[in-house]
Structures are given as structure tokens and as C-alpha cells.
């Protein structure tokens, strides 16, 4: 499921606008703040894209019994346990679960 980038605009008061103008990369700062607020940020790297030495050691141990797979329903990569069947029927896809809004729209 490929989604095009979209430009979103919003109003802020003058003081906040001044603070945002002082940032080296406003778009990246706002993007990360929104992702964090929506709890969609990577729980390991917190959006940096890199892991510390200790995090990498934990990751290596974790991936001994997990694998990266592509979902047959949405086409997105995700982690799966070695000993679990990872086939999702469209009606049981995690994005369609109650309390999520990924399946809406």
C-alpha cells in the first residue's frame, strides 16, 4: 500500500512560529513530534534510524527467533515469531482491529 507524501498546513501563534523558524529542519521536527504523539515512532530507535551498540546486541538476540516478513494483506514488512504462522486473512488484519484507525479512510 503506497501512499503519496502530502503537505499539511496548520496555524500556530506568533511565539510558536518564531521558535519553529529557529529550527534547522522544521519539517523533520514536526514530523517526528506528530509521529511520537500518535505513537507511530519506532520503539527502538525513536525515529533516528540507528541503534546504539547495546540496542543492536539486543536486536541480534531477538532476531534469532524472529524474522522480517511481508504481509500478504497490506504488503508492509513486519516482525513475526519463528514458531507462528504469519498468514492474515483480510478480516483478521491487525489494522482492521477495533480501536485502530489504519483501516479507515
From TrEMBL:
<protein>
    <recommendedName>
        <fullName>CopG family transcriptional regulator</fullName>
    </recommendedName>
</protein>
<feature type="region of interest" description="Disordered">
    <location>
        <begin position="85"/>
        <end position="105"/>
    </location>
</feature>
Amino acid at each position: 500500500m503506497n501512499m503519496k507524501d502530502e503537505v499539511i498546513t496548520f496555524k500556530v501563534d506568533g511565539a510558536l512560529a518564531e521558535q519553529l523558524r529557529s529550527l534547522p529542519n522544521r519539517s523533520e521536527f514536526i514530523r517526528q513530534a506528530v509521529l511520537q504523539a500518535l505513537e507511530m515512532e519506532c520503539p527502538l530507535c525513536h525515529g533516528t534510524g540507528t541503534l546504539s551498540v547495546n540496542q543492536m546486541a539486543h536486536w541480534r538476540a531477538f532476531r534469532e527467533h524472529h524474522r522480517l516478513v511481508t504481509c500478504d494483506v497490506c504488503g508492509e514488512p513486519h516482525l513475526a515469531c519463528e514458531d507462528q504462522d504469519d498468514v492474515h486473512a483480510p478480516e483478521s488484519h491487525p489494522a482492521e482491529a477495533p480501536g485502530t484507525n489504519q483501516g479507515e479512510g
